Amino acid sequence: MKIFHCDHCGHLLFFENTRCVRCGHTVAYLPDLARVGSLDQNDDGAWRSPLAVASSEGYRLCENYTVHQVCNWAIAAGDSHTLCVCCRLTRVIPDLSVEAHRANWYRLEVAKRRLMFTLLALGLPVASREEDPDRGLVFEFLADSPDRPVTTGHAGGVITVNLAEADDAERERRRQSLNEPYRTLAGHLRHESGHYYWERLIAGTAALTGFRALFGDERVDYGETLQAYYANGPAADWQQRFITGYASAHPFEDWAETWAHYLHMIDTLETAAACGFSLRPRRTDEPSLPALPPFVVSGGLPFERLIESWFPLTYALNNLTRGLGQADAYPFVLSPPAIEKLRFVHDIAC
Asked: Which of 156, 206, 226, 321 lies at a C-alpha separation of 20 to 30 Å from 3?
């Protein structure tokens, strides 16, 4: 994630901001510029950004911004769609007459926008079903009902997320019941997007041979292997071969967990780089981190530089969160086979 500033007063802006807290200007994410920018409203109601001085078109705000306050993206004024390029991917939203649903929907959309930011920066294919009826990406955010429990997952380009995952207490309960070290909305969406991009980038391509060499043969029965995982737990040696225990359930899950982990890495590294983060320890035998270039994702850094930077950064992250009395922000250990799988994802994604 990049760091943004108000174009009117220079104050720091975060990716989720809708207003500059210093000067009060409305701000929005401008997908065409990949920037959060402050806006001025014309007499005709259109919005203009100082960042887009060469454009006479201007912007409109996403309907989910103006009506529901769950978005902060803008739309080019010439685009006839009422929703931004991110919100139009969500096909089903929860019943907003239920009091808690709006807040949970907001949290899901925040996580989805961060996912979309990274996917767009990587140049990956992102299209709605309206644009690509056969292979477009769709999100459905659904709440459990007495006769229809919702399972988070992916099928045929449709990513479904159970709304309960947006409730911190419920998500933590599920994390503990499944003995997982990490469970977040960002993790869910990144993982399920991995299943989608396996179909887009691996299936039926020359990359399938390399995939099977690293992750295994995906043709082994998915239902049976998943049933065995839940009955018996992860492979006994999963720490030596996989990123997580769940990754050992099936090659599809290994890929999705590795894909999600790669997106965690590059988003966190780019944020650290944009903040000017570096580590200069007093002892030469302690982890150090030279300053990274400001745009890790779009800059196309070699994988070796990414992984060499990742280890000292996670060392610092965990020390900082322990100082706050929190559990490790990064509760993972990467084995050499897991690193090679991350390299494969890097080569595919970039």
From this structure: 321
